[in-house]
Amino acid sequence: MIVNLLLVGLGLVILLFAGDSLVKGAVNLALRVGIPALIVSLTIVAFGTSAPELLVSVKAILDGAPGLALGNVVGSNSESDTRHSFIQMMVATVLFITLAAIFGGYAWVQGLILLAGLAFMLGHAFRASMRHRKFGKDVEGDEIEELEGADPDLAWWKIILFLILGLVGLPLGANLLVENATEIARTIGVSETVIGLTLVAVGTSLPELATTVMAAYRRQTDVVLGNVIGSNLFNLLGIIGVAALVGRIPVDPQMLRFDMLVMFAASLLLAPFVFKGWHMGRVWGAAFVALYVLYTVLVVAL
């Protein structure tokens, strides 16, 4: 089991570095071929930073462990119009839970519904950003500077190297993580879903966690909330949407009765900070961490 834990850690490290490498390569390639920074930020960066979750979920389904795929997403969800984005996130959460309650899981039809929801929200974000640019100044240069991994002077060979490292590293890391996480679940006698809700969910969320911590350190409140909301939206609609096209993802009744309701309640806890402007200081941070620890203990105990 110690070897499995070490290999899970190695898989996570590979996923993190490969995801970062893929984002850097894709961002700079897109900018080099003339794709606007706005489009890159709404698509490539959003999809790239969630690549670890996506690869892990798809690999889990192919390996016959759909509970790990679903647990990975549900466990991970625990300057922009933050209020509007928050409403979108809550709508996506309700849609996600409703589909599970009605159909007992996610097949290709439900996957297409989720992906359609993601496409609608991305389209809305693009139109809103275009309106902002139309009535404001040309901020393309500023947008390029703000893009994660953007470097206008990056050499072509480096762009290609980043892409290769990302495309090779992601499936390799996902394979190590899924196979060894599944083995750990069998060894300690818990389900793949529990491992997905805890170990895998925390590990694959490290990129978003790092970004959020740095934004909080710089006192960029909108970035903190925006990163959490954006990550939740893509996890619910994009990752499960794509994974459901690969194979059916059944939902355990226990997850529907408990974990998904906890996910909804956790999202709802952000409402006062979004609409009332509450300050999220150390006390609230400690409270949220304590709630997550309590949830983890309950998941393992149940």
Explain briefly what this protein structure is.
This protein is mainly α and 302 residues long.
Number of β-strand runs: 2
CATH level-four homologous superfamily name: NCX, central ion-binding region
Q: Order of strands in the sheet with the most strands? A: 1-2
Shape designation: globular
Q: What distance separates the N and C termini?
A: 22 Å
What would the average pLDDT be, to the nearest integer?
77
Shape-level CATH architecture: Up-down Bundle
Main sheet overview:
2 strands, antiparallel
- The CATH class is identified as Mainly Alpha
Strand content: under 5%
Structural class: mainly alpha
User: Segments where pLDDT lies below 50 for 5+ residues?
Assistant: none
Helix proportion = over 70%
Radius of gyration: 19 Å
How many alpha or pi helices? 15
Per the CATH scheme, the topology name is: A middle domain of Talin 1
Order of helices and strands: HHHHHHEHHHHHHEHHH
Overall description:
It is a single chain. The chain has 302 residues and is an all-alpha fold. The protein has helices at 2-32, 37-42, 44-49, 51-62, 66-76, 82-103, 108-134, 140-146, 156-188, 192-204, 206-217, 221-246, 253-268, 271-275, 282-301; strands spanning 105-106, 249-250. The chain has a two-stranded antiparallel ribbon with strand order 1-2. Helix 4 (51-62) packs across helix 9 (156-188) and helix 5 crosses helix 10. It is globular.
